[in-house]
Amino acid sequence: MNVQRPYLFKPDKEISRTYDLDGTHELGLPGISCPRCGAWSTVGSEYPAIAAKDLPLALRRAAKKGGPISVDEWQSLRSAVGEALPADVQWEPGTQFGALLADVKGNLPDVAWLTPWTCLLQQRAYEELLARGFDLRGRTPKLKWIRGTPAKLMEVDVRPGVRLAGWRSHQPCEICGRLALTAPDTIVLDRKTYDPSIPVQRIVDLTTYIVVSPKMKEAIERMGLSGAAFPALQWE
Ligand SMILES: [Zn+2]
Predict the structure, then answer these.
(1) What does the alpha-carbon distance between residue 5 and residue 234 come to, in Å, rounded to a whole number?
(2) What is the whole-number distance in angstroms between the Cα of residue 77 and the centre of ligand 1?
(3) 154 CA distance to ligand 1 centroid (A)?
(4) pTM of the predicted model, to two decimals?
(5) What is the mean pLDDT of the chain?
(6) 68 cis-preceded (ω within 30 degrees of 0)
(7) Ligand 1 midpoint to CA 189 (Å)
(8) Which sign, positive or negative, has the C-alpha torsion 207, 209, 215, 216?
(9) Most C-beta atoms within 10 A of its C-beta, which of 108, 131, 139, 181?
(10) Is 39 strand, coil or helix?
């Protein structure tokens, strides 16, 4: 099978200067305090399609209590939750769940971004992509317009999937499991870990990076959707 190389999926820089989105998701897990790494929480681990009310009680309690929590507390949280969440949900210290609550200033393009790792689509565009057969999931955000014209949007739930080349040699912290990677200038993916049937996915090892399939990119361009850029990446 001849699988084509995906693209990065990012905000169009010029257009993202014309609006401002500011907010956070319904529920955020606490950070962790590791004797070696210090206190940390992850960025780019977000599951808007999973509502806070559908999470295991242990996670809801931990979120309410806040943090950072100790490595021991984190491990007992892990064992309390067990396999209760789907396999493509990689929850970590700082992972966010549920609807996005945000203030908006300005008019939003077809593809709007809270951050380069939090992507929203105009409802119409989202539905058209679904109708074209793209397997997307998301949740309607709770947006409040401070200025600009209110619109209906959908936040896309982007799960981690593909990995960076050489991921097997990455060394996580032995105590807390933190993988502290800095994004390289050129993103190189491990092509064996790429599933082209997933239209949008995060890089497992760099969750602030979203990868889009060539088909999805083509559809977005054909539909003339504004707000997104597709930088090239490499794979091996
Ligand atoms: Zn650590």
Answers:
(1) 8
(2) 17
(3) 35
(4) 0.96
(5) 96
(6) yes
(7) 25
(8) positive
(9) 108
(10) strand
